[in-house]
User: What shape does this take?
Amino acid sequence: MSESAAFRTTVAILAWTGIAFLVFPVLVTALASFNEGYFIEMPPKALSLRWYGAIGDIHRIGEAVLWSLLIAFVAALLATAFGLGAALAIARHPLPGKPAITAVLLSPVTVPMVAIGIALVQYFVVLGVAFTWWSVAIGHVVLVVAYPVRTLLASLTLTNSGLEDAARSLGASRWRAFHTVTLPQLKPGLVSGFLFAFLISFDNYPISVFLVRGDVTTMPIELFNHISNNFDPTPAAFSTVYILIVSLVICAAEWRYRIVSLSIPKT
Amino acid sequence: MTRTTRNRLLSRRAVMQGAASTGLAALATPWVTTAARASGTLNVVLNQGALANLWIEELHPMFEAETGATVNVQQSVTANMLAMLKTQKDAPPDLMQFSEAGVFLAADEGLLRQHNTANIPNFAMLRPAFDMADGFSAGCVDAMHTIYYNTSRISEAPTAWADLWDPANKGLIAIPPVTWNSGVRMVTTASQIATGLPMAEAQYDWEAGIAKLAELKDNGVIAYTGAPQAIQMMQSGSVPLVPFYGVFVNPMIAQGAPLAPATQLAEGKHGEIVGLNMPVNAPNTELAEIYVNMSLSKDFQMKIDSVLNALCGHSEVDPSEATLALVGPADNMTYADWAWLSQNRATITDKWNEVFG
Amino acid sequence: MPGSGMDISRPGPAAPVRGRSAAAWASWGPGFLLLAPLGAFLVVFYAVPMAGMVVESLGWWSGDADVRDGLTLNQYFKTFDSSRALGAILRTFRISLITVVICLLLSYPIALWLIGAGRGLRTAILLVTFVSLAASLIVRNYGWLIVLSDGGPVNGVLIALGFIEFPLRMTYSEGAITVALVHYGMPFMILPIYGALQRIPPSLRDASLSLGAGSWRTLTRITLPLSVPGVFGGTILVFAVSMSAFVTPLMLGSPSTAMASQVAAEQLLVQLNFAWGSAIILTLTVATLLLVWLYARIISKVFKIDV
Assistant: This one.
């Protein structure tokens, strides 16, 4: 037996209203990016690709993107490495107070990012390492480490630790067993954890704005500065390109590694 | 991090030292890192929008090519720059671009270094009004502030600031925030209108000014809080009468926005000279002086005229036709006593916030 | 907290009835070793800096009236005295509440629909949700800036339909902030609810329907209550990110709609008042954690579930 048609239709209408709300700004931005004129008007009176060419004119955007790529890559790598150890510990080994430990590890997501930024800038200044690119990466790791931990925990529940034990009992060393049996099964968890850590670090503003100065700058900071001081649709072109790239990467990850199911919280 | 390094950092002494020095260290570093000061880097704080963009796009490449040094630029507004000058006395940036609204106060408090005009030959070419506070500021451009109107909604240019109080314009008007210098000028103009005295005397009666400004609330005034907001209102016509700075709006007009300035106002347009100022203790004075000299060069000053359509400081550069059309008669400009206004700015700000906050 | 509280620990050696034996401690060894790198990292770069910030907030600023040595609660008194800081915190709370409610109302139907949707369409919409989660917040806020702008589609439609003659000013207001925060929170709300709904055995729903309960009754009596853990997880997350909001009010608000993170950041970046800035942000953090904890207690009491 299934629900009544009225029910299904109502749910569908409400759902699609929500979905439309979700995608609306992205579609509008894409449309605005083709606006020929300097001032945004809907619908555009004439179309043009000129703002795509102007993307390079955003002040320091080239180096900002490069810095962001570097910082995000290092942060995601560290976060995934740390997260792997933590996830293995929580999933496979006995520990006191596991719910508490897990809560603490995942807490940086609920603490205001500005708090992390403020605390770290003072800390790094005292240590004398403020405003270096890797101090920014460290700040990002604190924020994003929760994501690999979560996806890897989810991934580990899907793996059978018995297989690893079997390999060990057949004579494989601990590392070999882990490396050849468990690690490949963890690929989806590793990839999705890394991906989310990377994307969230790349996009971060509240922590970066405190930790960045002078030579180092990040993409969100330069984009934000441009939006605050200029009124042309260049950010619309940049945004459209950015969303396109992110969509392609996520779709590729889903097609290859089925990351979607891993990131759905199991409560 | 190795075990030993970590132990050293977390040792009791390090933590105690850290805790004690957090305040000073934190105050000393945010503007300029040690690395940046040591190398050939010029740290410059510019104003906003088109004004800063002209320097960033035209001057910096020239400067970097000629000196081989890099320019590290940050952007801010006058009020914030003053606050930072005070708290950053030990490690300030090399140059700051803010207007007369801050210059007199900063000079009085000993926060600025007088320009060494021997090292800046172009200084001699400045018009007298642009040499502010006896060489403490190298004035580059007059950022004129007047009422801009949307030509598709308003057919005739306003002829007086008093037009903002005209009931016929109800709901069509805006004013700048008091955090902007133009917001303070609105108070002085309002007191001009309220007391009937000329600007030179009226500006001191700010209480009358605030009382008069408060009347605008009955006329549906919007106190805008940022440039994008104001530009959007003006350009779309949702609020067609917006006082704003010419240097920001003129590039919009060049892009085809339906905007035009009120070039002749009965009480006088607001002139505000923006200059380059060197903080005391600025590290790279040589580079800074080259930067100032380039900014005062005839070539660059001509760009101020052609790109920003504003009055520039160089005595040999007369305003072009296009600039005159957008700026109007120069004798219609009034300048304020910023030395006095800066002293009383905090009180004026509080009273303004009580009315419009 | 979403993602936590998973009971997936392998049973270790049984702990003796009286206290823990050496064997139990030893069995924790490998676990601790694996956890150590992350633990150490978080202590050095999270716990210690936060503690430092607490200490900083108990001190004085060089621009304060009377600067003394030693600890003081002055910055916290200042926070509650300041109409700007306190007003911002209250405003933040109000906006967060409204955001959570609207977000829940928009997201629940989506999660519900996803359960009954075909495989391909479901994956597609889930991917859209993910891209939304991963797309830059600045990009998404900028999108709302365009949508709500004077020249944007909302005004365009209103003018075309003749409701207004000149554009309405919708940007730089609390309304704009709320809309953007709802948009930001939707992926955080959809995914946990979907996860919880997935866990409800379809047989329960089928049984309810075949026993004569209508679709709506089944929804309110069976589905909704059983999805509470997911709703709880989603609402807490959206509430927490709304309370911490910084970029969104910065881009879509004005100084008179400032939220708490903004006011704290102002003190730091402009006034260089680390002491007061730290106090403000800590007040916000503690308030958020307290409210979250309170909410958790209420939910577990009312719904008698363990969260």
Observations:
- Chain C is about 70% helix and 0% strand.
- Chain C has one domain: 83-303.
- Chain C touches chain B at residues 40, 44, 48, 52, 55-56, 59, 61-63, 149-151, 155, 166-169, 171-172, 254-256, 270-272, 274-275 (CB under 8 Å).
